Amino acid sequence: MDVAATPVARPGLEPLVSGISAVVARGLDLRHTAYAAAGVLRERLPGPGLLTPEERAGRPDTYASHLLHAEEGFSIVGVVWRPGQVTVIHDHVSWCAFGVLSGIEHETLYGDMGDHLRELGRTGNRPGEVSGFAPPGDIHKVVNTSSEVGVSVHVYGTDLRRLGSSVRRVYDLPVR
């Protein structure tokens, strides 16, 4: 995860931080926190200027995550996906809310059946769309299926300065 060495002006970040801080302070359970954070993100979804042009370019080999804000109860990350870039199948250590700024984040959801995974559903998240989820039941993979660079904002219910990643587990079970 990239962390800027010098502070960068982040248009739209401060209203998002203050809104998410207020949600976290309410002390809701994981699922309700995720939904409330998604509501704040929906109302305050920043524009692509949240990331610098260099950050928005992405990486040729894998999607790029840029830590934009972190504190004890949550972190905000800008994720950049070049066309076709994909995550491994994984789940998370905490709740998450995300909003798509560009591209199409195609998500496949899975259920853990013990010795294999079962596909539960698929969705294509387009620019302006926002969603939230919480463990358990958050096993998924994501791919940018558009022909343009995808950018999204992810809010995780943990301090990524401490953990380094929001991923709890990577799944290599067969999919049936």
TrEMBL record:
Matching SUPFAM superfamilies: RmlC-like cupins
InterPro entries: CDO_1 (IPR010300), RmlC-like_jellyroll (IPR014710), RmlC_Cupin_sf (IPR011051)
GO MF entries: dioxygenase activity
PANTHER family documented for this protein: CYSTEINE DIOXYGENASE, CYSTEINE DIOXYGENASE TYPE 1
Family membership: Belongs to the cysteine dioxygenase family.
This protein's UniProt keywords: Dioxygenase, Iron, Metal-binding, Oxidoreductase
Name of the protein this chain belongs to: Cysteine dioxygenase type I
